Amino acid sequence: MKFSDLIITANHNLFRNKTRTFLTILAIFIGSFTIILSNAINTGVNDFIDKQVEGIGGDGYIEVMPKNVSDQLESIMSGDSSVREYDPNKGSLETSYITAQDLETIRAVDGVEKMNAYHMASTEYITSSKTSKNYNITVSLSPDNSLNVDMSAGRKVDADSSKKEIMLTEDYVKALGYESNEAILGQTVTLAVKQNAKCLMVANPTDCLATVDATVTGIQAPGVLSFGGGARVNLALNNALYDLAMEGMPKSTADRTYFAIGRVDPEKVEQIRTELDKLGYTITTVDDTAGMIRTFFDVILVVFNIFGGIALLAAAIGIINTLFMSVAERTREIGLMKAMGMSDRKIFTAFSLEAILLGFWGSVIGILISMLIGYGVNSLAHETFLTEFPTFQLVIFNPINMLIITGVIMLIAFIAGTAPAYRASKQNPIDSLRYE
Fold first, then answer.
1. Are 225 and 56 within 8 A, CB to CB?
2. Mean pLDDT over all residues of the chain?
3. Beta-bridge mates of residue 76
4. Residues 91, 72: contact at Cβ < 8 Å?
5. Neighbours of 76 (CB within 10 A)
6. What is the helix (H) or strand (E) element at residue 63, kind and residue range?
7. Could you report the per-residue pLDDT of 246-255, keeping only the tens digit for each?
8. 186: alpha, beta or left? (left if phi > 0; alpha if psi -120 to 50)
9. Of 371, 372, 357, whose CA–CA distance to 402 is shortest?
10. pLDDT, tens only, 374-402
């Protein structure tokens, strides 16, 4: 009997008991569907992040913070509440900062081209001459001209300009009294900030506010890898807001910062990372930020793959049961095949092929259903929660991944079918022909 004949015969034998075979394939389908769809989502998310990283640029842009600060922030983010012995070399967040002298030390590292203190400015509200209302807003620094920003209108702020510049999101355009994105370009908006020292001496919080005027240069499009939210400002505006907020405070306090930002030789990033680590600093690049986002999604998708693996384990047990029952039902048939000269190897192969075909059909159905649902999810997502991200394909099916998953599932099915196939191949032909 040719190998092709064995495949045809195995496929035919599978469907002798349609209900049992269907239930076994259904169990395999559930596992394969879960794994294939979760991998497709993973591919879609990573593809979008990769495009964002490529589009954002920032080769050589780094953020620096004291290692103690990054360790404590990581501990807070992870929810770690374990008790640790006090280390006098590691102060609290309030005593771990970068001074002007520290900046000079960082600038002296080979490959560092530019390094400035990043003082985070906290704004109270934004308004314009076109409205009598004030709106809450969060501003973040657009730290370097090498970082690209997708714009709906206008241009990004010039990080090196002495003029105070801001780019807003579309939500603020109409709120500030302008009819379109283009209408607000070049217009002046006013930002308010609390003066910390003055606020200690007045009863009414609004009596210690100071304002700064800024020019709107553009409207930014939404993106996953954003450096902050609400609005982005250039260094001149950021420093003006911070200086107002710290007016009246001791200079030693005002000059402290937890972060420094700068530009380095892209070819020496890892070398600089090592050098600054020895000096007690942690650096973050654009690729590092993308990696953290990937890790977040990967953890979620691992959970789905675990559920898929559990379903495949249950399916493997189903395959064993199905084939053992098939061997019992076809004992006389096996005896007849042996009496006609069919070898043990071919009988083992025939039953192994039945197991492999169970895995194959379960995988194929899983692929077809997951693709049908996946493309439907993409369409629904772009009509609902992904309307602001038209290029984000939530589900992307990678043919290579699907082939690998199918191959693994067929291998699992083969392993599960080994015991029943071996039992069938070792049947005594005389006893088998007498079997009732």
1. yes
2. 82
3. none
4. no
5. 11
6. strand 61-66
7. 888 887 777 7
8. left
9. 371
10. 889 888 887 887 776 666 788 889 899 89
